[in-house]
Sequence to fold (769 residues):
Amino acid sequence: MTFPAGTILGYPRIGRQRELKRAVESHWAGKTDADALEATVASLREATRARLAELGLGRADSSIPESFSFYDQVLDAAVTLGALPTRFSHLRREDGTFGLDALFTAARGDGDRAPLEMTKWFDTNYHYLVPEIDENTVFSLSSTRFADQVAEARADGFVTRPVIVGPVTFLALAKASDEAAEGFSPLSRLADVLGVYVELLAALKDAGAEWVQLDEPALVSESLPYSPAELAEATRVAYDVLANAADRPQILVAAGYAQLSPEAWSVLAASGVDGIAIDLRRGSVPAAVPGLDNKVLVGGVIDGRNIWRGDLAGAFDTLEELRALGTAQVAAGTTTSLQHVPHDVADETQLHPRLVSWLAFADQKVAQIVTLAAGLVDGREAIVGELDAATAALADRAVAPGVRVDAVRARTAALHTDDFVRGNEEERVAAQDAALALPVLPTTTIGSFPQTGEIRKARAAHARGEIDDAAYDEFLKAEISRVIDLQHDLDIDVLVHGEAERNDMVQYFAELLDGFAVTQNGWVQSYGSRATRPSLLWGDVSRPAPMTVRWAEYAQSLSEKHVKGMLTGPVTILAWSFVRDDQPLAETANQAGLALRDEIADLENAGIAIIQVDEPALRELLPLKTADQAAYLDWSVGSFRLATAGVADATQIHTHLCYSEFAVVIDAITALDADVTSIEAARSRGEVIDDIRDAGFPHGVGPGVWDIHSPRVPSVDEQESILQRAADALPHKLIWANPDCGLKTRGYDETVESLRNLVAATKNVREKI
Ligand code: GLN
Ligand code: ZN
Fold:
């Protein structure tokens, strides 16, 4: 059994029209039963296989991945291994398996049973569910789902390749459960999960799988709690067992997202696995090592993480280079699953045709793989037309108007180190104290207020032209004025306008800046049933006109208190868009930084005294390789400073970070040099405050006292205890009282109650200190 000449490591699961979202959400709402849901997703899988075959992947050669997931691939592995935390044990069925109800309950929680924690998948904006493992976790094959899907495909006339998170990555991404002993390491349970993988392999073979893909992206990361050497050793142990399993399909180990560590590369080459898939966009051609002669090498030359058509001829050259390694076969592949890109450029009718010709969404990437595979089989001549067409598109992209704008380039070229530096901090503090007259422990919120159905309806009606600009303006003004009144009632100190005019914190700006395009159907799964529509950052970024000033000015006109100006920072704008790949990110970030700098100057001139620049993605983009991190932090922090350093001493700059992993990027957060930083803290009841204290964080800081991720209303006591913890640990002058994050996903009932408690808690602590 050979391997096909080309394959993709995975395909979007959500459906071209987000069918999966609709199907699971209707099931959660109790409108459809499990059977109806299963039937819908089976037809979705059928359509996916048919589409991939239509695009040119083979029906019966294992080139079509079976990569469907109801919610998340790590959760699927946890369910299959029987490794759900004991709080979900009651959902195990009589025959010992976990069904759909267990899967969804683990993902979403149920009353007091907290869901699995969610966290970012490597350096992407996709979130996986974190398995909880301890000494007593019992691993046993607890779902037939993977094998069933192989059989389903077989019945449909397809031999597909099931895609499953591999044992090393599964454990490396898991966390120790609350019941685990201090210092317990999930990877120590490797031997115990392997038995279940062996059983699973046999079941897959039995169902008709000829190849299985085990995803092991942990082997590229230097940002996990295990060293590359530890991970490589675990890989050696794991694949020794799996390769020697008596009854198994051929095994492809896939390690995308960056360069496979040299240690793991040697181990895998020497192992008995049948194929290795590597990332050649974020990694380079590895060294020849012993053991490759009986392996298939899938060269990840088509980027699974961006939407550019790219340099197809260069991709083919790279595949030819791989042949020098002496593997049994070289195949064309994507760097990662295509789950990180939208389905199909053909679904975009509003994009400029010239831009369209530079793009490749999932379906176009499949076609590129089919082309490269044909080239590997029939020689370069056979595909030279396609290679040349891609090269021509790339050349066209380089010279198209808007891609390089002289005025923008002149500005970034003229930047001077002074442009990145604010005034002396002591003088700033004094100027702000005098100008702002804030109480100790000022209360504020992170920016957005609930995005009600009414707001969404008005926005949609405006987009469809059913209400005109003037009517929409009036609607938004009424909304802002309502939110300001509410904050007055609640006696909050520093107000916000509520962000009712924003569909999304990045897209709103992408629509107003030059250099961006937005899609109609370019949905990408963010987590579970949630998808986002990243903007396309294709050209030089500049700001044709002010973007937020009108709303900020209006909001400020309604209050004697300060209303914060509210912007999304350059790093987050880049992180949550598909960014041009023809120049360093640093250059693009500085362009965005300058556009924001102009906006901030306009806000300042309009009398806005406090301006918040959100950077929730600062941590997310941190490279997986330690050697790349310093350069990243340099440009990312630099672009934020470029945006914010132009203000007067008396203008207070805030920033907001969504996560609580303060310690990991503490130096960077400090270097942002924002006067005030708000950060998530409530879920851990303020644990991050210790890190802030230990770091001697010199700036103002607002550890969140209300976990806004659920509708639960935190009591006065609860919020007070976090605030008191901050007051005990940090200089009082530095502390702010605020929720963990924006309130856009919350309802008004819980918002009003929670904020009332927040203000009461703050007043209590003020009296005590
Ligand atoms: N200002 C934004 C809001 O409140 C911040 C959102 C975020 O951090 N993701 O919605
Ligand atoms: Zn946030």
Observations:
- Residues 446-448, 499, 505, 566, 614, 616, 656, 658, 741-742, 744 surround glutamine (ligand 1) (CB under 6 Å).
